Amino acid sequence: MILVTGFEPFGQHSDNPSRELAKAVDGRRVGGQDVRGSVLPVHHSEAAVAVERLVSELDPMAVLHLGLAEGRARIGLERVAVNALDYSIPDASGYRAIDEPCVAGGPAAYASTLPLRSILAALTAEGIPAFISNSAGTYLCNQTLYTTLHLITTRRLRTRVGFLHLPLLPAMVAASGLDQPSMSVATMLRGVEVTLEVIAATGAGELRRTR
Amino acid sequence: MILVTGFEPFGQHSDNPSRELAKAVDGRRVGGQDVRGSVLPVHHSEAAVAVERLVSELDPMAVLHLGLAEGRARIGLERVAVNALDYSIPDASGYRAIDEPCVAGGPAAYASTLPLRSILAALTAEGIPAFISNSAGTYLCNQTLYTTLHLITTRRLRTRVGFLHLPLLPAMVAASGLDQPSMSVATMLRGVEVTLEVIAATGAGELRRTR
Amino acid sequence: MILVTGFEPFGQHSDNPSRELAKAVDGRRVGGQDVRGSVLPVHHSEAAVAVERLVSELDPMAVLHLGLAEGRARIGLERVAVNALDYSIPDASGYRAIDEPCVAGGPAAYASTLPLRSILAALTAEGIPAFISNSAGTYLCNQTLYTTLHLITTRRLRTRVGFLHLPLLPAMVAASGLDQPSMSVATMLRGVEVTLEVIAATGAGELRRTR
Amino acid sequence: MILVTGFEPFGQHSDNPSRELAKAVDGRRVGGQDVRGSVLPVHHSEAAVAVERLVSELDPMAVLHLGLAEGRARIGLERVAVNALDYSIPDASGYRAIDEPCVAGGPAAYASTLPLRSILAALTAEGIPAFISNSAGTYLCNQTLYTTLHLITTRRLRTRVGFLHLPLLPAMVAASGLDQPSMSVATMLRGVEVTLEVIAATGAGELRRTR
Fold first, then answer.
1. What is the four-CA torsion angle of C98, C101, C107, C112, rounded to 10 degrees?
2. Which of A44, A141, A150, A193 is catalytic?
3. How many Å is the Cα radius of gyration of chain C?
4. Burial of residue C102 (number of CB atoms within 10 Å: 0-12, 13-18, 19+)
5. 10 Å Cβ neighbour count for A29?
6. Residue A179: which of B74, B173, B177 has the nearest Cβ?
């Protein structure tokens, strides 16, 4: 079982490709693994609660979070989640944060446990623009990657956890009138499929030191 | 009859979306107009010769040139072609140019005669990222737009002429490893179809002053 | 005599480097030429009136217009002015334009008559980031370059005319909080001095065909 | 005592603003603190050795590392150093790295212990473009920030540690011919002075948990 999550639209956006993709892969079977897609609220505390419930219920071998990264031209494979919340776009509850931790007393960062290098090679071979990103930002995307890695680590689970950041959809750019890169939902969906195939083929991770 | 042209690959590129699109629309019928697609050589003098032959042979009501604009995120509707050739990437014959005119003694620029504002509105309504561009550069794309407008003007034809600049294809960006925007061929093809529909509905242009 | 013009601040900007530079060079003597600096209103019709009055009064051997190009990282030596006004940021009188001509019935464009290649070489040798730009946009900067070149051409004057587009000042970027390039006023001022030296050494231009 | 470090030029660069600034502040006194400037080799193991020696010798209240971030428009106050080395530009010894740790078995990241928010406010008030950056990359800049924070943490020192990433110098951009932002050495130097004033006024940090 692999859990794939997307987010609801947020800020001035009326759509969110991560939501579309999480819905699109829900119920599929990839590389011998069932795929469960779920859409998370853009909420500084409820998103983590939802992930914790899903992990407890599903006991997935991997969690692949998806989120929107406006302005990016390629799919970003996030290398790390930092223990920082710092954003001016309010979340769904109107919350904003300046230099708060994701988890008080938590480590400065967690590294993603997905096989990023293999995923990048597979995406590139498939002709899908992607790169390994060194920052998932300090908004709810980074927070979700951090809190899920914190959950897995403190519970001593072998679940692999990672995050793909997605460009805007073409229609979102067309509607905005802004000069921003985009990626079609078909290309992104193929990217998620390829990523799930690599994750399924890699198997579960090692236990991580709790410290 | 509407003539659509693309270009062969050039520089370090092994593909060119403009070529794929010119081939894809060749032989179609859009808005009551036959469409003829043709691929031009990336050559500082042969491209114009090929266009002149096609215009003489086909007597099209419009010429829509397509070309690649590496680095751009949206389809660019070119407003104007300037009388300047200035490029360091050699063309197919190895030719480079510094501050040469496209046509010696020609006017400083020609304005596109396509209904750009209507095309932009139609593309935006269709969810295709596009904008009106104020510069087609000083490479062979600009030259081709200039020489075709010069041909139409000096021959006193009513043929409408314009240029769409296209982003890189996703596979070209994936192969390059560079951080560059791309657009899927499906999105671009829909963009060309929408553009042809608007052109067909608009009809031929007025005679332009030769000056 | 060389006339250097800048613009008043506009839009949300409280400053304009072109104004500072026009004031800074006013009254200087460069390469045997007196320099007169003047600040133009950001107004779709009054700017051209002011330039016409200054040209009539001063009979300069060259006119160097300066303006702000938010988002640019280097000094832009504008190659051409196109006969188009198209902007959504209102000018000082609240005026906006969509696809209007700068001069009804005027040619599609005028080429700058400054020795751009020599100026670029001199700036580069001085360590000042600069480039030859193929578009001055469709706001009042382009309009001013167009109307001055139109004036010179229709009056059959030998005055050289050109436009330098300048980056934001560092303090403007700091105040905005946006991720935008800037250039110090000292670097820009040296750039204008170098440009004036090249212009003074080049001398007046040839008469241009009115057509 | 505050230790300021810069780096030697690297890659295709013939200069490095961080080197110029480290030299410029060497021997100054700011906010009651002596400043010692030192230039580090761009070497994957020798840079850390040099820092360790300087920290042992000088026992500074703070270490401010400076480095070059080509392509950035503003001074970046690095929030975090991640335990990753991943770069294709060889260091001074020809070394390249793919997904190596900075310190084997070290934590995924260390957070900077400089008062970033106060420094940002002071720089902004001074009109110097700056921002809090969430990634120092995975080259030697990030490594140096990581290894110094690791040193301070494992030695249980109260020394504050941070990193400022600097744009290219204008002359470096002019020489490259590329479209890249730059910042004058005068603006950067003022930025370093302001940063040192804030650090001196803030005092030493708290002891950090070794984990």
1. -80
2. A141
3. 16
4. buried
5. 11
6. B74
Q: pLDDT by residue for chain B (211 residues), tens digit each?
A: 999 999 999 988 999 999 999 999 999 999 999 999 999 999 999 999 999 999 999 999 999 999 999 999 999 999 999 999 999 889 999 999 999 999 999 999 999 999 999 999 999 999 999 999 999 999 999 999 999 999 999 999 999 999 999 999 999 999 999 999 999 999 999 999 999 999 999 987 766 654 4
Cα–Cα distance for residue pair A85/A98, rounded to 1 Å:
7
Interval D61-77: pLDDT, tens: 999 999 999 999 999 99
**How remote is the C-alpha of C89 from its chain's centroid?**
19
Cβ-Cβ contacts under 8 Å, A83 against chain D = 111
Q: Is the pTM of this model over 0.90?
A: yes
Contact check, Cβ <8 Å, D129/C184 = no
- In angstroms, the CA B188 to CA B75 distance is 8
**Which residue in B has a C-alpha nearest to residue C99's C-alpha?**
B117
Distance CA C185, CA C172 (A): 11
CB-based contact A187 B184, cutoff 8 Å: yes
Q: Which of D127, D130, D170 sits opposite C127 (nearest CB)?
A: D170
Q: Is A130 on the interface with B (CB under 8 A)?
A: yes
Interstrand relation of C130-133 and C75-78 (parallel, antiparallel or unpaired): parallel
Active site (catalytic) residues of B: 78, 141, 165
Interchain CB distance below 8 Å, A109 and D211: no
Of D108, D110, D117, the CB nearest to A111: D108
Type and span of the H or E element at B143: helix B140-154
C96 touches chain B (CB under 8 A): no
ipTM of the complex: 0.93
The gap from C-alpha B82 to its chain's centroid, in whole angstroms, comes to 14
Q: In this structure, what token pair is assigned to residue B73? A: 């995120």
Complete edge-to-edge strand list for the sheet that includes strand B33-40: B29-30, B33-40, B2-7, B62-68, B160-166, B75-78, B130-133
The b/e string for B125-155 (b: 16+ C-beta within 10 A; e otherwise) is: ebbbbbbbbbbbbbbbbbbbbbbbbbbbbee
- What distance in Å separates the CA atoms of residue B186 and residue A188, rounded to the nearest whole number? 14
Nearest-CA distance A7 → chain B (Å): 21
- Which residues contact residue A51 at a Cβ distance below 8 angstroms, ignoring those fewer than 6 apart? A5, A40, A63, A144, A147, A148, A151
Closest by Cα among A137, D194, D129 to C178: D129
- Residue A100: helix, strand or coil by DSSP? strand
For B80, the closest of C109, C111, C132 (CB atoms) is C109
Interchain CB distance below 8 Å, C84 and B135: no
For tokens 């400037």, the residue is D37
On whether any CB of chain C is under 8 Å from the CB of B182, the answer is: no
Q: What is the mean pLDDT of chain C?
A: 95
The answer to whether the CB of A210 falls within 8 A of the CB of A156 is yes
Cβ-defined contact of B138 to C138 (cutoff 8 Å): no
CA separation for the pair C123, C131 (Å, rounded): 9
List the structure tokens of D78: 């690095």
Please enumerate in sequence order all residues whose Cβ is within 8 A of that of C188, keeping only pairs 6 or more positions apart, or say none. Answer: C17, C21, C75, C166, C167
CA pair distance B110, B133, nearest whole angstrom? 14
D-chain CB neighbours of A138 within 8 Å are 134
Q: Could you tell me whether strands D85-87 and D29-30 are parallel, antiparallel, or unpaired per DSSP bridges?
A: unpaired
Nearest CA in chain C to D185: C184
D5 contacts: CB under 8 Å, gap ≥ 6:
D18, D22, D37, D38, D39, D40, D51, D54, D63, D64, D65, D66, D144
Interface residue A128 vs chain B (CB under 8 A): yes
For chain B, list the contacting chains (3+ Cβ pairs, <8 Å).
A, C
C20: closest CA of chain D, how far (Å): 16
